[in-house]
């Protein structure tokens, strides 16, 4: 007996005697995909491909089509803010920079500025990491963006987007916490705290992967020396970012595989909470 012909589920005008071995829907030659047994429709093949385990980075993140996209976006944001500074002048430095101070006005009343002014100004602990000096030549932003590309891009490949972004932002907050604790009355700006967090993380992962650590350690030592010898550089922000980034990287690099996600994000959350608590204590000291 001849097999009864039916219409393809995607092309009703085409008759076929073949069905998908997975969903049993009739498929024409255009819709057929060879399988180990028989043929499958393109939808079933697509679902199977999506269900497969995706490749992961060293830290367990998802491998992205553009593995350095976040680094590019961060550099773009910093440059965009810098161009806005050139347009608006010192006003942007005052509005986005990090500082906390209190004093008395002519009437004897206490007046607080910066983060000490109140919750509405706490945005500064993060926005200060995207503001740079307007000096010419623009060495501040140029050096930071080159460092962000050289250090950040390889690190983003290792971590994946979400872990890398968390490392960067929480390192910036850790740097701000150190500034508020040790030098709250100085208007502090720049991405250096976050970049020092990337330095610390790079050292941890080079150690974890058993790479030659001498180049990154030499570069880190040079940057630490510059932090303490060059005038106008916030060594407090550098130190805070370095400590925060290093602690996060330890959790990212050495988390046990069976609890990796929990330990990694738990470490990020712990450093984030610690940074907020230290910042709050520092501001309370300023306002007391």
TrEMBL record:
<feature type="domain" description="Peptidase S54 rhomboid">
    <location>
        <begin position="120"/>
        <end position="252"/>
    </location>
</feature>
<dbReference type="InterPro" id="IPR022764">
    <property type="entry name" value="Peptidase_S54_rhomboid_dom"/>
</dbReference>
<comment type="similarity">
    <text>Belongs to the peptidase S54 family.</text>
</comment>
<dbReference type="Pfam" id="PF01694">
    <property type="entry name" value="Rhomboid"/>
</dbReference>
<keyword id="KW-0472">Membrane</keyword>
<feature type="transmembrane region" description="Helical">
    <location>
        <begin position="239"/>
        <end position="255"/>
    </location>
</feature>
<dbReference type="InterPro" id="IPR035952">
    <property type="entry name" value="Rhomboid-like_sf"/>
</dbReference>
<keyword id="KW-0378">Hydrolase</keyword>
<feature type="transmembrane region" description="Helical">
    <location>
        <begin position="189"/>
        <end position="209"/>
    </location>
</feature>
<dbReference type="InterPro" id="IPR050925">
    <property type="entry name" value="Rhomboid_protease_S54"/>
</dbReference>
<keyword id="KW-1133">Transmembrane helix</keyword>
<keyword id="KW-0645">Protease</keyword>
<feature type="transmembrane region" description="Helical">
    <location>
        <begin position="216"/>
        <end position="233"/>
    </location>
</feature>
<dbReference type="GO" id="GO:0006508">
    <property type="term" value="P:proteolysis"/>
</dbReference>
<dbReference type="GO" id="GO:0008233">
    <property type="term" value="F:peptidase activity"/>
</dbReference>
<feature type="transmembrane region" description="Helical">
    <location>
        <begin position="262"/>
        <end position="284"/>
    </location>
</feature>
<protein>
    <submittedName>
        <fullName>Rhomboid family intramembrane serine protease</fullName>
    </submittedName>
</protein>
<feature type="transmembrane region" description="Helical">
    <location>
        <begin position="165"/>
        <end position="183"/>
    </location>
</feature>
<keyword id="KW-0812">Transmembrane</keyword>
